[in-house]
Amino acid sequence: MKTKIPICTILLAGILFAGCSFQEKPESTDANKQAQETTTEVNNEAEKDLAESDTKLQLMENKKIGKYLTDAEGRALYYFAKDQPNTSNCSSDCLENWPAFYSEDLAVPEGFNKEDFGTITRADTGEKQTTYKGYPLYYFVKDGASGDVKGQGVKDVWFIVNSETKFTK
């Protein structure tokens, strides 16, 4: 009986030692890491595709100017009265203050016709820009929060967009 206890103790210690010293092979760690990165990339791409494929525009309301069109985050969308249909006349310094709005596919609010929205490729930057009834859409850099409409009426050429917007040609 006395010999059984040391043998069992030695066997148990050996099993514990073997279990504690086990390490994964580098190939399986790399494979797991690569699989996780691939899954993360696929999920990020799917989220990006979903966000870009269906940007929901919305209507917000301001007491002074009424209802106006915004992006999904509530940032007001403007048009530039000096633009021409399918042509932007805002470039360089102008674009720094009035960044172009672009979305591949829009979900439009009630009162708007999806066919009234299109896309142009800007001559100056080669980037795409969303249009409404042919007129390019912009943000205003001083609109810092959802619901801001600080660009309305700037220099009598910048205006918010709503379903009743009339463009002069």
Structural overview:
By secondary structure, the protein is an alpha+beta fold. The protein has helices at residues 4-20, 26-53, 93-97; strands spanning 55-56, 58-62, 66-70, 78-80, 106-107, 117-121, 128-132, 135-136, 158-160. A hairpin with a 6-residue loop joins β6 (117-121) and β7. The longest helix is centred in the first third of the chain and has 28 residues, at 26-53. The radius of gyration is 30 Å and the shape is elongated. The relative contact order is 0.16.
TL;DR of this structure?
The chain has 3 helices and 9 strands; from the N terminus they run H-H-E-E-E-E-H-E-E-E-E-E.
Please describe the structure with a list of short key phrases separated by commas or semicolons.
30% helix, 9 strands, alpha+beta, 169 residues, three-stranded antiparallel sheet
Secondary structure layout:
Layout: H1 4-20, H2 26-53, E1 55-56, E2 58-62, E3 66-70, E4 78-80, H3 93-97, E5 106-107, E6 117-121, E7 128-132, E8 135-136, E9 158-160
Parallel strand pairs: 1-5
Antiparallel strand pairs: 2-3, 4-9, 6-7, 7-8
Number of helices: 3
**Overall outline:** elongated
Biggest sheet, strands in spatial order? 6-7-8
Which runs of at least 5 residues are low in confidence (pLDDT < 50)? 24-28, 38-53
Series of secondary-structure elements, N-terminal to C-terminal: HHEEEEHEEEEE
Describe the largest sheet: 3 strands, antiparallel
Helical fraction: 25-40%
Helix-and-strand structural type: alpha+beta
Mean pLDDT over the full residue set: 80
Rg result: 30 Å
Strand content: 15-25%
User: Would you count the extended β strands for me?
Assistant: 9
Distance between the termini: 106 Å
